[in-house]
Specification:
Length: 574
């Protein structure tokens, strides 16, 4: 499939130029991170944007899996739960097979590969489905460069431009910041391509490839799997209603079976993670200062709701929902011209149209009514799939509109769409192109963690993250002050007793109890209690930065210094 797609791709200069432009643009978000950011590497390793947290988390998992360990790297002694392992497991296999360092693989190699494959597969899918180069090119454009109207609001308010996530959802430029999301797009698009081929010639090979790609999506990204299974199931119902057979039902049932097999072992406690909380994103979008921030509408929405003034509440929430939709979709909102142009559209649609319609609709419905326990904003990731696949439909809609226009008018319309689409991408690049990164790993810590990586495997105790010190630290902040990250585990390959409270919260670990036990250990005057803490929790190493220490002395605690430089001291527990 890829060989055939690549051949078609190279024969079409416009597609080549567009996909290469999209690949380079997306990759710029990632490829500078994890490398020395100044001359002589005196500033250590730099990390731009969310790479200082999200990228570090993935490195911790990749190192962990490459060592053949499925314990939680940032919560030593516990297994991994409530997480999709596919992406990190795949990269760990590549690390073991090639010897490439996880950091170089994650930041410099995989991003352009994922970006190129997504563009190539979008083009292949649309061309195979619609047989139109114009539709295929515009679909690729919207997938790569689609953005919100946040920049327009900031410009109108005289606050510069930017506003990528003003309406909550990240946009196309940030796709690779979430590599499991990017990889899940590849599995979904591959599944759709093989579905089209199967529907054409009923090949058993294409049938099993369709089931494989749809089935593994949940292992790569849970949100993707749920949307894919819902969409293919809806397509099978459509096929049965239209009396066109049961082939899609078999695809749906077998895809569900594969998904359940992959999902259950690592998500046994995931029941109850999704909570019913209608319009949480609409309300917070209006009240948070880093979002749309329209306090008057927020006050009206909540007042009418609490006062049971339902007609006014419906009007207020409808306005907020319209802002949410138009703001997030930006120029891709034209996709709904195709999706909703006729009430009878679905009755005359094919299975792919039904799949896309349900995918986009479900991606909108879930975050509108549900949030995630502990980290309510996480369900916005369902919406990301609506944005991507509406981008594909938008490309089709725009081309079908402009192809009927005279050549000059057609060109002007396309230019207008481009001009109103790309500002989000251009503005967001400002977070990833400055000379100074937002966070960094100091050279002294790089040296210390390299030393620790060469020690026998054992649980590492670190100092708890200090939010107050973080707020006062100038940029670029060292990773230990940037936010709560998994950097010690990521760069040492060792399990850490407590790290990255953000992901521990998302995955529902009881980290607050463990943090209190660490704080008690650091502050106690009871030497027996302190020693007991180290023994009971199987602490093998203590990793302390300059000026970090416990009330009890190192010798009293039975610690032997095995490494020291100007920034870090590492102790081995006797």
């Amino acid at each position: 499939m890829l060989k055939e797609a690549l051949k078609q791709f190279l024969q079409k200069s416009k597609a080549v130029a567009l996909i290469l432009a999209g690949t380079i643009t997306w990759s710029l978000v990632m490829v500078r991170s994890g490398l020395c950011w100044n001359i002589g590497c005196t500033g250590g390793l730099g990390f731009w944007g969310a790479n200082g947290h999200d990228g570090i988390w993935h490195l911790a998992l990749i190192n962990n899996f490459a060592a053949g360990n499925f314990q939680m790297p940032t919560f030593a002694g516990w297994g991994i739960q409530n997480y999709h392992l596919g992406f990190d497991l795949l990269l760990s296999w590549i690390v073991k097979l090639t010897g490439i360092t996880p950091s170089f693989l994650y930041f410099q190699i995989i991003p352009p590969v994922l970006a190129l494959l997504i563009g190539l597969l979008v083009y292949k899918f649309v061309y195979l489905w619609r047989k139109s180069e114009g539709e295929s090119l515009l679909a690729v454009f919207f997938v790569y460069f689609g953005g919100s109207f946040g920049w327009l609001i900031l410009l109108f308010r005289g606050q510069g431009w930017g506003g990528e996530s003003m309406f909550w959802a990240q946009q196309s430029i940030s796709t690779l910041i979430n590599p499991p999301f990017a990889l899940s797009l590849i599995t979904i698009l591959s599944g759709l391509i093989f579905l089209l081929k199967y529907l054409k010639n009923k090949s058993t090979v294409f049938l099993f490839l369709t089931i494989f790609f749809f089935g593994i999506s949940i292992f790569i990204k849970v949100y993707a799997g749920l949307l894919v299974l819902s969409s293919i199931l809806a397509g099978s119902v459509w096929q049965i209603v239209k009396k066109k057979g049961y082939s899609l039902l078999w695809i749906a049932l077998l895809s569900i079976a594969v998904s359940v097999f992959l999902f259950i072992p690592f998500n046994k406690s995931s029941v109850g993670l999704i909570l019913y909380s209608p319009f949480w994103f609409l309300e917070t979008m209006m009240t948070l200062t880093d979002r749309f921030n329209w306090q008057k509408l927020f006050s009206a929405m909540t007042t009418y709701k609490m006062g049971h003034i339902w007609l006014k509440a419906i009007l207020a929430y409808s306005l907020a929902f319209t802002i949410f939709m138009v703001g997030n979709f930006g120029t891709r909102i034209i996709a709904f011209r195709t999706l909703l142009k006729k009430p009878k559209t679905l009755l005359s649609a094919g299975p792919v149209e039904v799949f896309l319609f349900v995918m986009i609709l479900a991606g909108i419905i879930v975050p509108t009514f549900f949030v995630q326990k502990g980290t309510p904003w996480n369900t916005i990731q369902f919406f990301y799939y609506s944005l991507v696949f509406s981008g594909i439909v938008a490309g089709i809609a725009v081309w079908n509109f402009v192809k009927r226009q005279p050549l000059l008018k057609r060109g002007l319309i396309i230019i207008l769409f481009v001009l109103f689409t790309i500002p989000t991408t251009v503005a967001s690049m400002g977070h990833y192109l400055p000379a100074k990164p937002q966070s960094m790993l100091p050279g002294g810590e790089v040296e210390a963690l390299k030393f620790l990586s060469g020690q026998p495997r054992g649980v590492v105790l670190t100092y708890p993250y200090d939010a107050e010190k973080s707020a006062k630290a100038p940029a670029p902040r060292p990773l230990f002050l940037y936010t709560s990250t998994a950097y010690v585990s990521a760069f040492s390959g060792q399990p850490v007793f407590l790290e990255d409270q953000i992901n521990l919260d998302i995955m529902q670990y009881p980290w607050s109890e463990r943090r209190k036990s660490v704080e008690d250990f650091l502050n106690t005057f009871d030497i027996d209690m302190a020693k007991s803490f180290l023994k009971e929790n199987n602490i093998a190493y203590v990793y302390w930065l300059k000026d970090q220490h416990a009330r009890q002395g190192d010798a009293q605690l039975g610690l032997t210094r095995i490494f020291q430089n100007g920034e870090v001291t590492i102790f081995k527990v006797n």
